[in-house]
Here is the input.
Amino acid sequence: MSDTPKNTQTVHASFAAKLTAILGALEGDGILPADTPHRGVTVEPPRDPSHGDLATNAAMVLAKQAKTNPRALAEKIVEKLSADPDVSSAEIAGPGFINMRLEPSVWIAELHAIAAMGDTYGQSSMGEAQDGKRARVNVEYVSANPTGPLHMGHCRGAVVGDALASLLEFSGHDVTREYYINDAGGQVDVLARSAHLRYLEALGEDIGDIPEGLYPGDYLKPVGAALAKAHGDAFKSAPEAQWLETFRTGAVNEMMELIRSDLALLGIEHDLFSSEAALHVAGKPDAAEKWLRDHDLVYDGVLEAPKGKAPPEDWEPVELPLFRSTQFGDDQDRPIKKSSGAWTYFGADLAYHFQKAEKADAMINIWGADHAGTVKRIKAAVAALTKGAGREIPFDVKLVQMVQLMRDGEPLKMSKRSGNFVTLADMIEEVGKDVVRFTMLSRKPEAQMDFDFAKVVEASKDNPVFYVQYAHARIHSNMRKAAEEGFAASDEHIDQLGTEELELIKQAAQFPRLVEAAASAREPHRIAFYLYELAGAFHAYWNLGNTRVDKRFIVAQNPEISGARLFLSEQLGQTLRNGLRILGVQAVEEM
RNA sequence: GCGCCCGUAGCUCAUCUGGAUAGAGCGCGAGACUUCUAAUCUUGAGGCAGCAGGUUCGAGUCCUGCCGGGCGCACCA
Here is the structure.
């Protein structure tokens, strides 16, 4: 692959370029005004394939600027398109669409491009600036509290974030996968106390039931044991103040180890783990507060009582440093510090995001839908801080909706309080990494989804994961069989490929533009749906061979067509593989 | 009460950032194959895209209002 041509053009990229050139020429002809913006102009396959291979709406979009009607402008464009040897026909349809059919040689060339690019087919440079520098995108995901193992609730965000990161990488971005460790709030003190109890247990004390308010899970037993081993009975009857910090640090470290190993089961590895505690030590929140106060975005004020439902019984008005998030559409100004003087989560979080922004050209957070209420304030605060620093960057928060666990159509109940919840590790053990990943990506993230254990492990064509992997495995086993029978893939006679085969190439050829669209929309699930369709097209072609022996990949009496079809199937396999790699799902070679 | 997300075939979901006659799978109807290119195949019916307006050459897609479902509404994280 060392001789991979760097700028091998894919069909869709090259036709987009051709259209741009034609529109430029029309400017030269005086038909379009100089420097006409091409906003909204698209070149894409029409939904209805009977309309042709490619369609453009250019005439409709630009008619106004050309001071003419769409069809008249379309004629000018068609005139130039028709002169292109790759275009077998170009015609005007409907309100002014231009439909094109391309010469078979174009699709054959695409097949060569897939072969030449191999693992890089579908990659793009959309993340690269003019000077070739890749945009730095920070994707923060998971960021679960370090108080226990990951459970189902974390799973979807983890997979979506990871696939999005891969998708952006594949599209030429310089991606940092980041995990924010909330190791500074009250919940880690609770963790430390819970660990202390398990420490006493490990020293042989009878601890009885775990008191309300502490973490009951068994996963803390080894933590207690490790602490007992490290410290002996030094903290057995010591006051909390003497051991809290030690136990907090120790327990958080253990929990992060646990979480890392859970993530590894999903095939996820973050580049960067940022500690909230370290942020405080570095004085970042103080710096942020100072800047915000200087710019009148933080003031001392009294928080309103909660609206709607009855206010908490212990509610009393207190003066707190408030961020003016109402200026940015929030319901309420939000406190950055508690009455105790400690930072609120939000106070630390805005400083954290400001820190991330320094080393990124864009930031994306993947959050659970239960954090939806905090999006406005953090976006507002980050916008203010980065703007103030003279470098405002795009900052998206993608909300991932809840997953309802099901078994045979019945919702699965779980209670976090009792420590009785489905852990990520359990789930992966039961259904496997690939199933979890693919299933989590087979629904747009902002919609709720059901995850039925019984359905997702089913090995039939009704199960998308299986269906896509099966296509890849089928290609592989067919290649093996071909080799045994003395056939080999060869591009020597690929011009003999017929209509059905060209249709397959056309579908594979969608991959690069689909990747770009998915990357710019930040929607990795589109890749999953595309792969399902591509696999479907492959299976359909394969099934043709059931009744028509002449349509099989291996035709005994015809090594030429067999070689060409095997070459085609190799490239389909390559495309499936590239897509699956983005999703982090294994392209298996046998089922 | 307020905020965010969702609402598309009987069911589960797509619809490529506004395009042409809204597509798949399941299920249902009809047929094929009795087997290894079958962990099946072909084919048919099925829709007022929650409802009502608006924006425009064009709306499932954007805007407004309602209806229904989910999530959230601490100085928690």
User: Anything to note?
Assistant: Confidence is low (pLDDT under 50) at residues 1-7 of chain A. Chain A has four domains: 11-102, 137-182+269-400, 186-263, 464-583. The radius of gyration of chain A is 29 Å. The first strand of chain A starts at residue 43 and ends at 44.
